[in-house]
Automatic annotation (TrEMBL):
Name of this protein: 3'-5' exonuclease
Cited Pfam families: DNA_pol_A_exo1 (PF01612), DNA_pol_A_exoN (PF18305), HRDC (PF00570)
Positions of the HRDC domain: 214-294
Annotated region (Disordered), positions in chain: 290-313
Entry-linked CDD domains: RNaseD_exo
Gene Ontology BP, a term: nucleobase-containing compound metabolic process
Keyword list, A-Z: Exonuclease, Hydrolase, Nuclease
PANTHER family for the chain: RIBONUCLEASE D
Length: 400
């Protein structure tokens, strides 16, 4: 499919055009297809730079959320309408920022997972379910570009062109497999989920952190990461364009004493100006000067069970329970034709195995699963196999 059915609509970039679109979509019928384009890897943060919608009776709309940053009127007009998104959790945060928050949704990617499709990208799903090939060449472009080139707008319009058709076909397939109610519970959970909490110590997610062993080196990572983040936010560019994670880790490992030593490291080479080198060296010097009590801890406080690799030493009985439970859940997931992580979160399985209910009967295991956030359909499916695995592992330990 190379062209949207009604052609490429003009980009909405003023309040009058937006008001017309709001009225048109409020008057439309059926579900509304929604998508958003971000500039990941180019700009700071995850804001939306284009929003695409399509609804029966309203056609397709392409909205510039830079020119129209408040789309709450559109969100209000669609209140109660089912929104169809592909990989909803990726787009909902940036949509929420501009006032678009669904109360009901259908996630075509998640539907594909539950239905057992091996490839769940939008292009692959449209091709395997509807028989159309979508041109997918512009997914990773810089959507903050203005004006947006026509081929990009064509691609963006096509992303919502067939989304409701895909939703309808997947609904039929889920119903055929007896999984439609399961999918609805998953979609309701996504729609009802609160915005994610800001990540504590985000600098700890720097790629290559496993190489860092000493607290002084951790302080360098933290200082360089925070300096980079401030610069990236001020310049509105992706942090990786300011300084790479690889360079941050290299500097932390080397602890260079001056600009000359810093310039010799990977990532700080000949392209970097003297002023830039000096600002990174100043960050390193701040970390080097910290008194020991102010150095970051070598690990974050652990909530919940320890990493599974440590279970055999810490609690062999728990390790046996986890091994039995994982095998049972994997077998059930294969039987049901879906990825194991969609049948039940691996973290929930770990928590139940680390501190199993006593006795590990069906009622207690079901209550434990629900307390950790499993949906009712997951509790119903997983409880019998977990009870069996916990019981078998307990017998095995007893015989040992």
């Amino acid at each position: 499919m190379l062209e949207p059915r009604e052609g490429i609509p003009p980009v909405i970039a003023d309040e009058a055009s937006l008001a017309e679109a709001v009225a048109a979509f409020a008057a439309g019928t059926g579900p509304v297809a929604v998508d958003a384009e971000r500039a990941s890897g180019y700009r700071y943060g995850q804001r939306a730079y284009l929003v695409q919608l399509r609804r029966q009776g309203a056609g397709t709309a392409l909205i510039d959320p830079v020119a129209c940053p408040d789309l709450s009127a559109l969100g209000d007009a669609l209140a109660g309408t089912e929104w169809v998104l592909h990989a909803a959790t990726q787009d909902l945060p940036c949509l929420r920022e501009i006032g678009m928050i669904p109360t009901r949704l259908f996630d075509t990617e998640l539907a594909g997972r539950l239905a057992g499709f091996p490839r769940v990208g939008l292009g692959a799903m449209v091709e395997s379910v509807l028989g159309y090939v979508l041109e997918k060449g512009h997914s990773a472009v810089d959507w903050s570009t203005r004006p947006l080139p026509e081929p990009w707008l064509r691609y963006a319009a096509l992303d919502v062109e067939l989304l409701v058709d895909l939703r309808d076909a997947l609904e039929k397939e889920l119903d055929r497999q007896g999984k439609l109610e399961w999918a609805r519970q998953e979609f309701d959970a996504i729609a009802a989920a609160p915005p994610p909490e800001p990540r504590k110590d985000p600098w700890r997610r720097t790629s290559g952190m496993h190489k860092i062993r000493r607290r002084r080196q951790l302080a360098v990572v933290r200082e360089l990461w925070q300096t980079r983040d401030r610069i990236a936010r001020r310049r509105d560019v992706s942090p990786g364009k300011v300084l790479s994670d690889t360079a941050i880790v290299e500097a932390a490992l080397a602890l260079p004493a001056d600009v000359r030593a810093l310039a010799a490291l990977n990532g700080f080479g000949h392209r970097m100006s003297r002023r830039q080198l000096e600002q990174w060296q100043a960050a390193i010097d701040r970390a080097r000067a910290l008194p020991d009590p102010q150095l970051p801890s070598s690990g974050q406080p652990v909530t919940g069970p320890p990493p599974p690799r440590a279970w055999a030493d810490k609690d062999p009985a728990a390790a046996a329970r986890l091994s039995a439970a994982r095998a049972a859940v994997t077998a059930l997931a294969e039987q049901l034709g879906m990825p194991q992580e969609n049948l039940v979160s691996p973290d929930i399985v770990r928590r139940v195995c680390w501190e199993p209910p006593r006795p590990a009967d069906a009622a207690a295991v079901a209550a434990a699963l629900a307390s950790h956030g499993a949906r009712p359909w997951q509790v119903e499916q997983v409880t019998p196999v977990l009870v069996g695995a916990l019981t078998a592992a307990g017998r095995g330990q007893g015989q040992g």
